[in-house]
Amino acid sequence: LYNTTVAGAGAGGVAAGTDVWALLQGSGALGALGGTGASGAMGEVSRLAGGGVWRETRVRAAPLDALLSEEQVRTARLLKVDVEGGEWAVLRGAAALLRDAPPTLEVVVEVTPRWLALQGSSVPQLLRHMRALGFWPYILAHDDYEIRRALPPPPPPPPPRRLRSDELPASCDQADLVFSRRDVEALV
Predict the structure, then answer these.
(1) What pTM value is reported for the model?
(2) Count of other CB atoms within 10 angstroms of residue 171
(3) What percentage of the chain has pLDDT greater than the value 70?
């Protein structure tokens, strides 16, 4: 990767030290998302957490505005937010940055309704927040992260389509959304 900034901190809504495992465990989210079996990502998270990996890991958190320089904000073209349930806090904490960002900035956000609900939010609330900042939502084609399906390479996915509803499609329990200031039917 080039022209990429690694901030060395977690972007959150407020400056804080965050114990992610305690938050997930205390909220009951691990059980709600498939328990502690070894068959999925949450199973792996639970297995690692049981070994103390997450309990011993702390990450400095700060608002995104505090992690990026004015130059980085002015020249940014893409912001990717995938923080395992903390997306709502990051987007709220970055409101000033997003409002003042160049019109070419696009924001890719992993949206999971269950994670938003744990933070007292919802997909419609997140979409209203981003629309108020001048960003329209587009849904990326369903991602399939199974490596065995990647060979041979699949055909290119369709371009992100405008999300006209205030909810994700019924078949989606998680989706990647692109927020753009372009008001078109598809991002091409």
Answers:
(1) 0.70
(2) 7
(3) 63
